[in-house]
Specification:
The structure is a homodimer of 339-residue chains.
Chain A: E1 6-11, H1 16-27, E2 32-39, E3 47-50, E4 53-59, E5 70-73, H2 77-89, E6 93-96, E7 125-127, H3 131-147, E8 149-158, H4 165-179, H5 211-224, E9 230-237, E10 244-252, H6 258-266, E11 271-273, H7 285-288, E12 294-302, E13 308-315, H8 319-335
Parallel strand pairs in A: 1-2, 1-5, 2-4, 5-6, 6-7, 8-9, 11-12
Antiparallel strand pairs in A: 3-4, 8-10, 10-13, 12-13
Helix pairs in contact in A: 1-8, 3-5, 3-8
């Protein structure tokens, strides 16, 4: 660890997640000696505040990574595919929030609370899982370790911020359109999102699942290092701005009571149990927004199957689901003397 | 059947569902010789349009049912508990949309596409299932009949209209509050519903499930006349006005392909398959609002279990989920010469 801090670059700094990566670096007092903000030429002229100073956004080019020790990428798969290897060759450790490298066998896919050691075997690039995967594995790992998990059936309620800033604007504009009796204008989504929902996140694949649904299957298997765990996902966009919610049914190898699950989760890093039904106590997206924890509630026996459990898991999709997880991976590397 | 029509009463006529019952009676040209609109004393002075004339709302009292042949109730469980037997004793057939009588062994629980014959054995009162149950059993019955269903795991996305008019107003008011930077005011729901969601519909029970979740379990068993079918539900309120959506995973007794399921559902009454992924073709609440069909899409193999299937089911919760189903029960009785 450099006592004076690291030379850090954020790629895609003007996007919803990139922006938040800068904020999270500041909030968590990550040791930064110099922060470089990179984005496309369109963003030249913009600045972002960091520890009281305004930093100008620079254009992302092949030479951008000279001297950079840590590069946090959140600029889409195409940019990551091209520039992450360039940054790594220039000597930076890349933590990539896109889909570009997640399933590459040479790239660790890391959630610090779940598989921290995987991060240590990187060859320049470490991938952040998809937002909906991260909060699910944080909530399930303590149960997986204690009693095993055979099967997961999950249905998600995903916020528009996962799509980016323009989707947030689309929801807000459509809500006003509807409230004022106008036709809602669609630009980003295939259907109106205001006062509506749709089971369509990412393109659909041959097997009838969406890309987002298969991310939850494949990434969970990689993070758990368990190719056999059986998973079925249905991912749905709802008119919420921040915070993904997940209705999760699991079948464990060994029986476990809701009380024991609450105890396991209470003791787990990054998890907060909110499960007080008599006071309407369960996580909701609004209470998760702005926090870094994964919130779990509605923990109950699913009596429809042997060793069944049902629960409700909520997290801020662009914090723990993206920016915070990336910064936590960097913190993990620092604490292990690998940055 | 009386050729000149029946003397019909709608109890709770000024509520969201009662109002729609009147509209659906008109739309479907149900033969009505006299329509009596009943509500609490608060609603005296209100009128509702029916086939071009304005009908005054009358106060619901014990004598309200003299001469009434058909009474459609949607005024809450307490009113139904008290007044449905009074109406039945006065000679009316009661079709009740509340929770009061659904699980009474002497009261048939009827969805005309699913168990029409059950309606014939009534002793004065017939119950309408809960909205979230109705659309699920309409979508699943053709599959159940063809290949059997062992287990259902369902997660719902429920519209605020299911709670009533004041909840619709609460959502609209909260949306404006949030858009204008004010604190959202809560009156009906335990949490803000604008830009939020919560897994809490009806009170919570000892087993950790909500009343709404257990309705889906118990009512489905009763409608299917199958006490052994295994069901786990998670019911969630989302900021949508009309249209409940359901993410459903089932395990069938015998294997069945998505193509065969589409064929079964296309041939089934009251179901419309919308499943054209290349054109973002799947049901959404906005496309279900105002229709009487149950819409089914995203039909795919769930590869995480033997004979697994996943699908997405959407219907207008106050039409097929309430008012339309009640009127269809009356139509069924008429067509069988039982009214």
């Amino acid at each position: 660890m450099e006592l004076n801090g690291l030379k850090v670059a954020v790629v895609g700094a003007t996007g919803a997640v990139g922006n938040l990566m800068v904020k999270v670096l500041e909030e968590r007092a990550f040791p930064v000696s110099r922060l470089t903000l990179l984005a496309s030429a369109r963003s030249i002229g913009k600045t972002l505040g960091f520890h009281g100073s305004e930093i100008a956004v620079e254009e992302l080019v092949e030479d951008s990574f000279e001297g950079i020790q840590l590069a946090l990428f959140s600029a889409g798969g195409g940019i990551s595919k091209k520039f992450a290897p360039i940054a790594a060759r220039a000597g930076a450790v890349v933590i990539d929030n896109s889909n570009a490298w997640r399933m590459d066998p040479k790239v660790p896919l890391v959630v610090p609370e779940v598989n921290p050691d995987a991060a240590l075997s990187h060859s320049g690039i470490i991938a952040n899982p998809n937002c909906s995967t991260i909060q699910m594995v944080v909530a399930l790992k303590p149960i997986y370790d204690a009693v095993g998990i055979r099967r997961i059936v999950v249905t998600t309620f995903q916020a528009v911020s996962g799509t980016g800033k323009r989707a947030i604007e689309e929801l807000r504009a459509q809500v006003l359109d509807v409230m004022q009796g106008r036709e809602a204008v669609r630009q980003i989504y295939p259907h109106q999102i205001a006062f509506n929902c749709f089971p369509h996140i990412g393109p659909f694949l041959e097997n009838g699942f969406s890309e987002e649904e298969m991310k939850m299957v494949n990434e969970t298997r990689k993070v758990f290092e368990d190719a056999k765990i059986r998973i079925c996902a249905t991912t749905v966009r709802i008119p919420v701005i921040y915070g993904h919610s997940e209705s999760i049914n699991i079948e464990t190898e060994k029986p476990v009571s809701p009380e024991e699950v609450r105890r396991l989760l209470d003791a787990a890093p990054g998890v907060r149990v909110i499960d007080d039904l008599s006071n309407a106590g369960y996580p909701v997206p609004l209470s998760a927004a702005g926090t870094d924890d994964t919130l779990v509630g509605r923990i109950r026996i699913d009596p429809s199957v042997e060793n069944g459990l049902a629960m409700w898991v909520v997290a801020d999709n662009i914090r723990k689901g993206a920016a915070t997880n990336a910064v936590q991976i960097a913190e993990l590397l620092l604490s292990r003397g690998r940055l």
